[in-house]
Amino acid sequence: MRLNRLDWLLLATLVVPTWEKIRWETPAVSLTITNLIASAFIAVFVLDRLSRRDAALPTASIALLGFMLAFAAVYLAGYFDLRDRDAFEFWVKGIVTWAVHFAFLICACAHVVRRGRDLFIRCVWAFVAGMVVNCVYGAVQLVLQVGAGVNLDTLVVGPLTAGQGKQGGLGVFLLVLLATLPVALPFLFFDRLYVAARVSDLTALVMLFAIGLRLGRHAGRSPLPVGMAMLVIGVLLSAAAIRFGG
Known about the structure:
It is a single chain. The protein has helices at residues 5-15, 33-51, 59-77, 85-115, 117-148, 152-155, 157-160, 170-184, 186-189, 193-218, 223-243; strands at residues 23-25, 30-32. Strands 1-2 form a two-stranded antiparallel sheet. The protein is globular, with a radius of gyration of 20 Å. The chain is mostly helical. The longest helix is centred in the middle third of the chain and has 32 residues, at 117-148. Helices cover 76% and strands 2% of the residues. The two termini are 23 Å apart. It contains eleven helices and two strands. The relative contact order is 0.12. Strand 1 (23-25) and strand 2 (30-32) form a beta hairpin. The protein folds into two domains: 5-184, no CATH class; 185-246, no CATH class.
């Protein structure tokens, strides 16, 4: 399979989501390396479709667009609860980042469906490769911090982001790794795409239930109802995705 420019942009975007420390802060938005490459992919995708006068979207992308509009209504409703300028700036940063990520999901889904299974497999490997790089960086950072008292972030992330990136955050590395790796692994161990997707869904549901239990304890509430609520939300979203071809 010969890769085109959209393929390369998609793969590049999937390599960097776990590299959360690489970011540049502005008054309007928080520019992460993921947001920048994803925005480039969205722009090229839209221009390519416009140039070919092609507006067709697969069922899965249409379903994602429906979810995006529903979530957008909820997000926009939060505007009326803002109390000061700081809250407004935080809200704007959040909604811009959310819009970029969801638009990327819609466009990426449409592109992968059209390009086929080979590109999908490469996407999974690109995502895993990015996590491996992040793991290696985190391990080296830990060794240097414990063994020599050297903060690798000040040598790498600091200069790269002009001091605006997140530094000294092994916790960020571990959180992103634990949140993304389990749901990606099934696609590496199962040849049948449908089986891998269902195992990934089941893994995500178990994680949601566990997170709900933890959230309930943290909030001082009964853990089981919160865990069940998170599980029900996950089941509904998974059922909708499966119904529309996910």
